[in-house]
């Protein structure tokens, strides 16, 4: 996936109200940018960290800039949670995700469960496969952790994937690690122990937990390789 060009460099001043961030651009101007991430962004919003912003030319937008990437210890990290669904979609079509091959149709945002929408619904000769995609940016040691804040919505998704499998379809929880300095993925039990419990329960009941790492640069983000999920 190509990122918008040009991206505007700056440094984070502060993030607040979840979806707002004050950024000082390299030219010295301070702007308020949209932060497309509802998590805590733990470890990804240290004041002074280098960031890259995209710019919208839509005159109806209140905020002209969107925060796309942050650099932590020399690695670019993708914080835009609106991108992972597209990244997975592209990677399936490119044959990168071997576990999800053989389907002839990929549909986004299909209603299922209780007032939910599945991120990707795959259909074809193997049957139906419901794929719930999660963006992972939190790191501890060499391990990526999810979630970075308590997520009742994420807990609900796991319960619904369990029901999907019970009803005879395939259910997949898919972790997209948008950073290159991790070698495995694990539930963040210290942050959301209920999510960790439900993830293990889901896997025990046939839900598949997949994780793939993305190569992140200022030009593009691309899913490149699988990572083990440690439960």
From TrEMBL:
InterPro entries: SfsA, SfsA_C, SfsA_N. Residues 13-79 form the SfsA N-terminal OB domain. Residues 83-219 form the Sugar fermentation stimulation protein C-terminal domain. NCBIfam families: sfsA. PANTHER family: SUGAR FERMENTATION STIMULATION PROTEIN A. Belongs to the SfsA family. HAMAP family: SfsA. This is Sugar fermentation stimulation protein homolog.
């Amino acid at each position: 996936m190509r990122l918008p060009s040009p991206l505007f460099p700056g440094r984070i001043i502060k993030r607040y109200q979840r979806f707002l961030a004050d950024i000082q651009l390299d030219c010295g101007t301070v702007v308020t940018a949209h932060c497309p991430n509802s998590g805590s962004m733990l470890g990804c919003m240290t004041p002074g960290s280098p960031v890259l912003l995209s710019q919208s030319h839509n005159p109806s937008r209140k905020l002209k800039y969107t925060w796309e990437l942050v650099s932590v210890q020399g690695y670019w990290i993708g914080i835009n949670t609106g991108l992972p669904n597209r990244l997975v979609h592209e990677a399936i079509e490119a044959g990168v995700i071997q576990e999800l091959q053989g389907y002839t149709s990929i549909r986004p945002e299909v209603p299922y469960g209780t007032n939910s929408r599945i991120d990707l619904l795959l259909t074809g000769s193997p049957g139906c496969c419901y794929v719930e995609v999660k963006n992972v940016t939190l790191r501890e040691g060499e391990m990526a952790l999810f979630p970075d804040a308590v997520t009742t919505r994420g807990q609900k998704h796991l319960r619904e994937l369990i029901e999907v499998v019970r009803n005879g379809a395939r259910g997949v929880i898919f972790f997209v690690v948008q950073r290159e300095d991790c070698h495995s993925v694990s539930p963040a039990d210290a942050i959301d122990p209920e999510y960790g419990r439900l993830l293990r329960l889901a896997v025990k009941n046939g839900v598949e937990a997949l994780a793939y790492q993305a190569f992140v640069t200022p030009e593009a983000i691309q899913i490149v390789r699988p990572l083990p999920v440690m439960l």
